[in-house]
Specification:
This protein is α/β, with parallel strands linked by helices and about 290 residues long. Helices cover about 30% and strands about 10% of the residues. Strand 2 and strand 3 form a beta hairpin.
């Protein structure tokens, strides 16, 4: 995905900014969702580093723990996603995270089936995933020589496409083509896919272009060809305003780590259900059931 998949949720609480609300530290100690995030820390309050979930992100790699966001000290959806999938599966999990800020699917991630020039970042995405899969042993020596299964694909993107209505109008087609082309590229015809919608601004966002992107992302999962293998997480309920966030940036989810965690957790729960052959559903209060 793009910058919100990179992740801008702040880990450390800054008491001078809304009493630290919206940080990951606040989430696990004082938030109403503290119980839901309790597994992020051990009995001494230290961040858990999962032995059963590894992550590779643009050369940074190791056990899944906070700090694999756009920069150290930040998280993205990978944290909640990895914990949810790790708890659901018995197998060792590897997350290959590939994301760049400010990228559209209209141009940068443009898949081959959409026609025109293939996006440079579509090709880069494929190259980076292949480079890790082809040499897992050098990145994670404990798995040297073992086989792997490419089990799922997560996508969180859409901000840049929401800038122009003609890009919005072709977004559903482009995203469907991206899914289809990646399935062909990696020879997994029914690869499970979980999309996190571009829910910036929450339910109060009435901007036609932004809402158009969200509708397109939800519509992709309803396509007959993606029945039981693609699901879109509704993220608008995860939006937190600047008064309870580390910043008032607007985009980047106001640097709110609770938002990033809840979104990733919902993505992970949905992915686990797809892998079990079950159909996830969005709950009214946010989250997946």
């Amino acid at each position: 995905g793009q910058s919100n998949m990179q992740g801008h949720g702040k880990v450390a609480a800054d008491p001078s900014r809304n009493e630290g609300q919206g940080s990951l530290e606040y989430l696990v100690t004082k938030s109403e969702h503290a119980k839901r995030a309790a597994h992020l820390v051990d009995e001494d309050g230290a961040w858990v580093a999962r032995d059963d979930v590894w992550i590779w992100y643009m050369g940074r790699k190791g056990k899944l723990t906070p700090g694999y966001g756009a920069r150290e000290g930040l998280i993205g959806p990978e944290l909640g996603f990895g914990h949810a999938v790790g708890m659901a599966l018995k197998e060792q999990v590897l997350i290959i995270k590939v994301a760049w800020g400010g990228k559209s699917i209209h141009k940068d991630f443009r898949p081959p089936s959409s026609g025109g020039e293939v996006g440079a970042y579509y090709e880069e995405l494929v190259q980076k995933v292949r480079s890790v899969l082809d040499d897992i042993g050098s990145h994670f020596p404990d798995e040297r020589g073992k086989e792997y299964e490419l089990a799922g694909f997560g996508w969180h993107q859409g901000w840049n496409d929401g800038g122009k209505m003609d890009h919005v109008e072709e977004y559903e087609t482009n995203l469907a083509n991206l899914i289809g082309d990646l399935r062909k590229e990696f020879a997994v015809p029914t690869l499970p896919v979980v999309i996190a919608s571009s829910g910036f601004g929450g339910w109060e966002n009435k901007n036609a272009r932004r809402v158009g992107i969200m509708k397109a992302q939800l519509a992709v999962a309803d396509r007959p060809e993606f029945k039981d293998s693609v699901f879109t997480v509704e993220t608008r309920s995860f939006f937190r305003g600047p008064e309870v966030s580390p910043s008032k940036q607007g985009y980047h989810w106001n640097h709110n780590a609770e938002t990033h965690f809840l979104m990733g957790d919902a993505m992970g729960r949905a992915m686990a259900m797809l892998l079990e052959g079950k159909q996830p559903r969005n709950s009214e209060g946010g989250g997946v059931k």
